[in-house]
Write a structure and sequence with these properties.
The complex is a heterotrimer of chains A (399), B (341) and C (292). Chain A has 399 residues and is of the alpha/beta class. Chain A has 2 domains: 179 residues, Rossmann fold; 163 residues, 3-Layer(aba) Sandwich (Rossmann fold). In chain A, 40% of the residues lie in helices and 17% in strands. Chain A has a 5-stranded parallel β-sheet with strand order 2-1-3-4-5, with helices on both faces. In chain A, strands 7-6-8-9 form a 4-stranded parallel β-sheet, with helices on both faces. In chain A, strand 1, helix 2 and strand 2 form a beta-alpha-beta unit. The radius of gyration of chain A is 22 Å and the shape is globular. Chain B contains 18 helices and 2 strands. Chain B has one domain: ABC transporter involved in vitamin B12 uptake, BtuC (Orthogonal Bundle), CATH 1.10.3470. Chain C has one domain: ABC transporter involved in vitamin B12 uptake, BtuC. The radius of gyration of chain C is 19 Å and the shape is globular. The termini of chain C are far apart. The chains are: A alpha/beta (399), B mainly alpha (341), C mainly alpha (292). At the A-B interface, helix 1, helix 3 and helix 4 of A face helix 3, helix 5, helix 16 and helix 18 of B.
Chain lengths: 399, 341, 292
């Protein structure tokens, strides 16, 4: 009996053994991002973009004479995991800033950690308006992603161009992004085409394994067109189940998807199973039609070399922008204190391979437009590519 | 398949075997006093780890009241942890109820839920009991995951406020601590009191009846014990303390998320209990400490933590069924035996 | 609500149901005979999926080698089942159910990471075998040939399985083992061989269903943990240890899920767990089982 009384203090002492390693003088950025599961297909290239930016900046000597260090962790696209990792990186690794997260489940949750610890957090991909709305805004949150009102306006503009469409159905993942995405679209569509009726709404869960019941239920309402906010692995699973059921044929391929299905990443995942003819979008179409800006060409060339891939990715650009935005903020502030950096970033402009972006002073975001176009089969590539990308919305009433 | 055949589970809990000077030192109190110094002597990260361990320890001890003491294999204990976390979190965040009311309310809510679900569970035996507890925990998970307006759905409920700790700042020596550290001290005190209560309970006549039920339910019934009533009582007590652990955990992790309640978490806490040794009151806390510490150590080097955990579990099941404390106790007894001989 | 729509919904539910039947029948058999809840059954399913993908890559990435790959996956998982039963499980018979539960959970952890190590974390997918890639028109709906094939294979296995159980000598031994294994042992039957055989057969079915699911679902880490809970529900509904019970349990589950999203979209998850709890409370031995 007595032995167990020795054991507890012994183990308690062992548990308290300091694990923290000595920190170098680097500017540390914690980057929780999904690196496994269905959303890893987007998480990995976002991280690659951030890593490329860090490499470039460090090659030029860093900022304020200090180099960047990126600490990436697999958030598994879960709010719980992302929060735990963000806190752990702050407490254990003493990161100076946070960037990353992919979904709108993770980003708003990590934003609360940034707020409490007073650390600047730059979200590269989360589009849900709740991330920076009046109720949730705080000095340390910034977003280089677009938002669901911006994409909704663009999506509605494209949908409104189909004059013959009277009945529209929606399908979106049942979580923050999906709900905000559909709300933003419907609000914009009502203004442009009050005659269109929303006949059906389906809400499969994020990471749904079987879309069949949702597909058959939606087909029974016979919509003329569909607004679909499914993305990444969900869009792949959905398509594989929808195509053989004649889903795309029934709507004549009139589908608009605002969730970056226009990237080569997703097109490659689907290969020839891609539902050609639907309209998709991307922050970066990668394969550029018309006159390509030299900055973009250089970025994609560097990216291909950096990731050792044949085509590059349509996602890396947001990870890249997030790091450059932080670097610009640090430069402008003259130090790495989050209070100073967050003030410097208000209204700040920064250059990106697809043009200048600037943070709104009120909602800390860039209202980034995206490239939209019909996804077509292309003889030069073994996957769908975006035909004549159009930057939409042409203008957005920023707030 | 009676429990008598398995040595570790049949080890008496809290029964003094020999009274010597080692026993008379209040080790438990010393451990908690040592842990209380962590905010001063350790880093922020050390406090973070110590708090995680303390909360897990309470959670694992509450499970062990069912597992080790009463012989009920619950595969859904995380449901009560989750209910406690959500009740306390929702009250504090959404309704701005102070911690001093929200925390007991979490215990009360969990107790009620444990009473209702436990009433049905204890009517079943063995695997059916395990399955029904699993079903209840998955119901809690589904509600947490889908009831957006109340639980925040899969976004969870971030930004649970800290309790009002101004009173603590008034105490000399505690005023200059961070809020995190002050909450750690509060949580540690609550956990110490909870563990003391549970320890008392296990050693009381009530606890002895539970052990009798574990070893031989037929005999217990024969001597006039209302087996189901006692099992239900144990279920409610275990659930309530799991709820307390959950309420503290929600504040500690700065948010409550649906993933807290997923069934695999029930397995994790069960592993803690078994790793430490479920035949001993202090087994589960040892298991919690070792597991939390190991997971931190190992995840720093490899992403294959589940693989390591599975391997640890295999070793436990096949080579060390009494857990760490059980193994050390056996070793100690052998040394003692040799000395006497 | 049009008839064609109802038909589509029923067929969708049946597809889900038949996959679950293939998985859950093995789980139920193992429970019925060995009184073990095998958490690792979902891992066998996952391994079946990954192995099928691997087989397709080796043979013909466009999917022509699908059938051979499926057989390869199912057999490999069956062999793995044999090894696990012989080496580990054997020494756990007669121990408390807690140890058996935790052993199978340890397998879940180890096999899950092994799959991550071997095949990475990105989602993989397999194309529908060319022969079944089309669809046919039924009642004004397009039904994919592949799902019709799955709907046919479920009952085929159910009938074959029940014939083996009711008509053959092996079947009699298995049923006897289900009722009273000490008696059987005393009568001199080789109970160990029956256990191994059943465990291998169950693993084979799990591997088979994992392989067959690949053309319509993506293969991702975590699919093991998701499916096992669903299989539990099915087994509980039908009755643990009851073969036909598992079949009808799957059908009920599939249809509840399929129609559940129409009636209360957000709560279909909740409804299946609630159903599981209610059945355990009212009839712990399931709708089609007998009290043990």
């Amino acid at each position: 009996m007595s032995c167990r009384h020795y054991l507890v203090p012994m183990l308690a002492a062992a548990a308290l053994w300091p694990l923290t390693a000595g920190a170098a003088d680097n500017i540390k950025i914690g980057f929780p991002i999904p690196l496994s599961g269905p959303t890893a297909v987007y998480g990995k290239p976002v991280l690659a973009g951030a890593e490329l930016a860090v490499q470039e900046l460090n090659a030029k000597g860093g900022v304020l004479g200090r180099k960047f260090e990126l600490l990436s962790r697999d958030s598994k696209a879960s709010a719980d995991e992302a929060v735990r990792l963000a806190r752990e990186m702050i407490i254990k690794d003493s990161v100076d800033f946070l960037a990353g997260t992919l979904t709108s489940a993770e980003a708003p949750a990590v934003s609360t950690v940034a707020k409490e610890n007073k650390i600047v957090f730059v979200a590269p991909t989360s589009k849900s308006t709740i991330l920076t709305d009046e109720k949730h805004i705080h000095p340390y949150i910034f977003r280089v992603a677009s938002n669901t009102d911006v994409e909704g306006l663009a999506g509605a503009t494209l949908m409104a161009r189909w004059k013959e469409v009277k009945k529209v159905a929606t399908i979106a993942p049942d979580y923050a992004y999906g709900r905000d995405s559909i709300a933003g679209f419907i609000e914009a569509l009502k203004k442009q085409r009050p005659d269109i009726q929303i006949v059906d709404q389906q809400w499969p869960k994020l990471g749904e394994a079987d879309f069949t019941p949702f597909i058959t239920a939606q087909m029974s309402t016979q919509p003329d067109a569909v607004y679909c906010s499914l993305f990444a692995g969900d869009f792949v699973t959905f398509t594989k189940s929808a195509t053989p059921r004649g889903y795309f044929k029934a709507i004549n391929n009139r589908m608009v998807d605002p969730a970056e299905i226009g990237t080569p990443d997703l097109a490659q995942a689907l290969g020839d199973d891609y539902p050609y003819g639907v309209i998709g979008d991307a922050y970066d179409p990668v394969i550029w039609h018309g006159t390509e800006p030299p900055e973009h060409k250089k970025f994609i060339d560097d990216l291909k070399k950096f990731t050792n891939s044949q085509y590059g990715s349509g996602w890396s650009i947001v990870g890249y922008q997030a790091i450059y935005a932080l670097a610009e903020g640090i430069k402008k502030a003259g130090n790495t204190k989050s209070d100073a950096v967050s003030k410097a970033m208000l209204g700040m402009s920064f250059d990106t391979p697809v043009g200048k972006r600037s943070f709104s002073e009120k909602s800390h975001e860039t209202f980034a437009p995206e490239y939209w176009g019909v996804m077509v089969k292309d003889p030069n590539h073994p996957f769908a590519i975006m035909k004549d990308p159009e930057l939409l919305p042409a203008s957005f009433p920023t707030y | 398949m009676t429990t008598e055949t398995t040595a570790p589970a049949a080890a008496p809990i809290g029964v003094a075997r020999e009274g010597n000077w080692v026993r008379r030192i209040p080790w438990t109190l010393i451990v908690f006093l040592v842990l209380a110094t962590v905010p001063w002597v350790g880093s922020r990260y050390d406090t973070f780890l110590a708090e995680q361990i303390a909360i897990d320890a309470l959670f694992a001890v509450s499970l062990n009241l069912l597992l080790g003491t009463t012989g009920l294999v619950s595969f859904g204990h995380v449901a009560y942890f989750g209910v406690g976390a959500y009740v306390c979190g929702i009250l504090m965040k959404t309704y701005e109820v102070p911690f001093i009311f929200a925390f007991p309310a979490a215990g009360l809510g969990t107790a009620l839920f444990a009473l209702v679900s436990g009433y049905f569970c204890v009517r079943l035996i063995k695997l059916y009991f395990a399955m029904l507890t699993l079903a209840f925990s998955q119901i809690v998970w589904a509600v947490a995951y889908k009831w957006n307006d109340v639980t925040g759905g899969d976004q969870g409920l971030p930004e649970i406020p800290f309790p009002d700790l101004d009173w603590m700042s008034a105490i000399p020596g505690l005023g200059d601590l961070r809020t995190n550290d002050q909450f750690y001290l509060l949580a540690l005190a609550i956990i110490a009191v909870s563990l003391a209560i549970l320890h008392r309970l296990v050693r009381s006549p009530f606890g002895r009846v539970l052990t009798t039920i574990r070893d031989n339910p037929e005999r217990a019934a024969f001597i006039g014990v209302n087996v189901r009533a006692y099992q239900l009582a144990a279920f409610v007590v275990a659930g309530t303390f799991a709820g307390f652990a959950g309420a503290l955990y929600g504040i500690f992790s700065r948010g409550v998320f649906a993933d807290f309640v997923f069934w695999s978490k029930s397995a994790e806490v069960m592993i803690m209990a078994i790793l430490g040794g479920m035949g001993y009151f202090w087994g589960p806390p040892v298991g919690a400490a070792v597991l939390v510490w190991l997971s931190q150590k190992i995840t720093a080097y490899t992403e294959y933590w589940p693989f390591m955990l599975g391997t640890i579990l295999l070793v436990l099941l096949f080579a060390l069924p009494g857990g760490i404390v059980g193994g050390l106790a056996a070793l100690w007894n052998r040394i003692q035996g040799r000395r006497r001989a | 609500m049009a008839a064609s729509f109802l038909f589509s919904q029923v067929m969708g539910g049946l597809t889900t149901a038949m996959f679950l039947f293939l998985i859950a029948s093995g789980l139920s058999l193992v429970f019925g005979i060995m009184r073990v809840i095998n958490f690792a059954h979902g891992s066998f399913y996952m391994l079946g999926a990954y192995l099928a993908w691997q087989g397709v890559q080796w043979l013909h990435p466009t999917g022509a080698g699908f059938w051979l790959a499926t057989l390869f996956a199912a057999v490999t998982v069956g062999v793995l089942g044999a090894i696990i039963e012989r080496v580990f499980f054997r020494s756990l018979y007669g121990r408390e159910e807690l140890y058996q539960l935790l052993f199978t959970y340890a397998l879940v952890l180890i096999l899950g990471d092994a799959a991550k190590f071997l095949w990475g974390v990105e989602q993989l997918s397999v194309s529908t075998p060319p022969i079944l890639s089309g669809g046919i028109e039924i009642f004004g709906t397009t039904q994919p040939l592949y799902t019709l094939f799955i709907i046919a294979i479920g009952p085929a296995i159910a009938i074959a399985g029940s014939l083996v159980l009711s008509r053959t000598g092996i079947g009699r031994l298995v049923r006897a083992a289900q009722m009273d294994r000490e008696m059987l042992d005393a009568l001199g039957a080789n109970v160990g061989a029956i256990y191994t055989g059943m465990f291998v057969f169950a693993s084979f079915l799990a591997g088979l269903s994992g392989a067959l699911v690949t053309p319509i679902q993506s293969i991702v880490p975590g699919m093991d943990v998701l499916i096992i809970v669903q299989a539990f529900i099915v087994v509980v509904i039908g009755g643990m240890g009851s073969f036909w019970g598992t079949f009808w349990g799957s059908v009920i589950y599939g249809e509840v899920l399929s129609f559940g999203i129409l009636i209360f979209p957000g709560f279909s998850l909740f409804s299946v767990f609630a159903l599981m709890a209610v059945i355990l409370i009212v009839r712990p031995w399931g709708l089609f089982g007998r009290p043990l």
